[in-house]
Amino acid sequence: MPNENPNPAPATAQLPSYGASEQGLICAYRFDAGGQASALGQVPSPQVLAEAPPGFVWLHVNLSHAGALQTLRQAGMLDDELLAAMQQGSRATRIERQGETLFAVVNDVTFDFSFDPDDIATLWVHVRPGCVLSARRQPLRSVDRLRMAVKRGEGLRSPIALLDHLLQDQADELQAIVRRTADRIDDIEDELLRGRHARHAGEVAHLRRVLVRLQRLLAPEPSALARTLAHPPAWATDEDRAQLQRASEEFALVLRDAAALQERIKLMQDETAARQAEENNRSLFTLTVVTVLALPINLVSGLLGMNVGGIPLADHGQGFWIMLALIAALTGLATVLVRRQVRGARDGG
User: Fold this and answer.
1) Which residues contact 128 (CB under 8 A, 6 or more apart)?
2) pLDDT value at position 89?
3) Does domain 25-274 have CATH number 3.80.10.10?
């Protein structure tokens, strides 16, 4: 809950661990020149930011809160590009330079991710000298890991170091998803080798949809980082560039793992489809053989069952047994012909 005191103590009020204040603020921290963080109780004014000692401020807001955008606008924390992206709900992954600031749209899994393709939401990040602003509409795992790391006392020396930490957390979350998916695919593959493929077809397709959606949303990130590294802001240090380069390489590696897992799932689906087609062909063949073998019985019984005059052997004392022998002979002939066809097909295959 926000501080009820009309004159709150500066830079000392501890925010709740989750949720948001009446300003829509989830957390706010000031990092000194050494990278150590102290919690802020409210959004600082532009004058406070301008007069602040060396370091930077990180603000993380909940856009689902009605007053969040208005508060940040009044504090001078929003530019037109960031405001438009937030209001339009832009989800296209990108990290681009705008003058001497960095604007990032990052897609991440929600806090309660349950392998549902819809459990992916967007985080908007604005990085400039002295300030980092991040905003989201749904709780996200990566930024929450970052928040908890700061709360535990982990130091961040620059705004780009914070962005790098966020991207590293995002890569770790994606790697965990890929690892859990791979473990499940191992189990399903064992079931497939035992011939129990039909029961897992829906689950395999669901896992593939999740990975495809994740890769589609996150794949542009390494190339976006590469473009940023090619033309970094003037205030970015060599250490900042090296950190972003490592984040880009790690994220690209995780995406390659995800792509390889997608290919593995596709091969498993192809194998499942082939086995299902083989079973269907076997069932169809069995049905065809039974139909052919029953043809003499159906034909003869149909002819003899007609209620017309001149039925053969109608008055013969052994007529039933004669017709039974005829049916047996025709069925035996059909059986011999079918066996020859099957043997010829096997020899030809």
Assistant:
1) 100, 101, 102, 159
2) 60
3) no
